[in-house]
Design a protein that fits this description.
The chain has 241 residues and is α/β, with parallel strands linked by helices. Helices cover 29% and strands 17% of the residues. The radius of gyration is 17 Å and the shape is globular.
């Protein structure tokens, strides 16, 4: 089965990582969604990729870690996308879990680099337990120490290991890490057939990111990937093969 993740929701339809973006992804038929989490100053889990909101609101220069949730909820992140989203604010993870049905797989990325959020792993797991979503989530991160902490706290949690740069024998690194990794999430630019075969030979699923063309998607499928992270509704909304 091929499983494609809507990267930050349907970010061509609505501001990325927001409730409307996730609703649009569901409307397109997405069976899996990727999102990013960070911690506010007062320990709330908010869904956002960047460590500031400056890309969405030029006046919002403070880092998320230095704002309370109440302060975050005062920041308009929708107007720069469209007037239709004027007044839209960041969502909390709890709001997303209330919205997305449990039969939709979530990939939750801990955005722990370059800002390190002390205790985010426990906070995330507590939230998932509260919503009974431990078995329908993959926790991923470029911070592999954070993944180790998740495993120590929840040994059965599915983990996805993210890689931006090409490294020697990625699959051996993952195996030697001692982590119970479900899937490897490499930058799609260097994924070839050998990469996929070596990873899958060791039992890892492979989900390259971020696929932005149908031709590259078809090429990756020919290599045997298990799915992709993509911004294209024509890919993440298609029936799973």
């Amino acid at each position: 089965m091929v499983l494609n993740f809507a990267h930050r929701g349907s970010l061509t339809d609505a501001p990325e990582n927001t409730l409307p973006a996730f609703l649009h992804a569901l409307d397109h038929g997405a069976k899996a969604i990727e999102l990013d989490v960070q911690l506010t100053k007062d320990g709330a889990l908010v869904v956002c990729h960047d460590h500031t909101l400056k890309r969405f609101n030029p006046a919002a220069t403070k880092r998320i870690k230095d704002c309370t949730l109440a302060e975050i909820k005062q920041i308009d992140i929708g107007s720069t996308f469209s007037e239709a989203y004027q007044g839209l604010t960041l969502a909390t993870l709890e709001e997303v879990l209330d919205l997305v049905p449990p039969d939709v797989l979530l990939n939750i990325e801990i955005k722990n680099i370059p800002v390190l959020y002390e205790g985010i792993e426990q906070r995330l797991l507590d939230c998932l337990k509260q919503y009974n979503r431990m078995e329908t989530v993959i926790i991923s991160s470029f911070d592999h120490v954070a993944l180790e902490k998740v495993q120590q706290l929840a040994p059965d949690m599915d983990l996805g290991m993210l890689f931006h740069y090409r490294i020697l024998r990625t699959w051996d690194y993952v195996r030697e890490s001692g982590l119970r990794i479900r899937s490897i999430h490499p930058n799609q630019v260097y994924v070839d057939q050998n990469f996929v075969q070596q990873c899958k030979a060791l039992g890892y699923e492979v989900y390259p990111y971020t696929v932005l063309s149908k031709s590259r998607y078809e090429e990756l499928l020919s290599y045997g990937v298990d799915g992709t992270f993509t911004n294209l509704p024509s890919i993440f909304g298609q029936p799973n093969a």
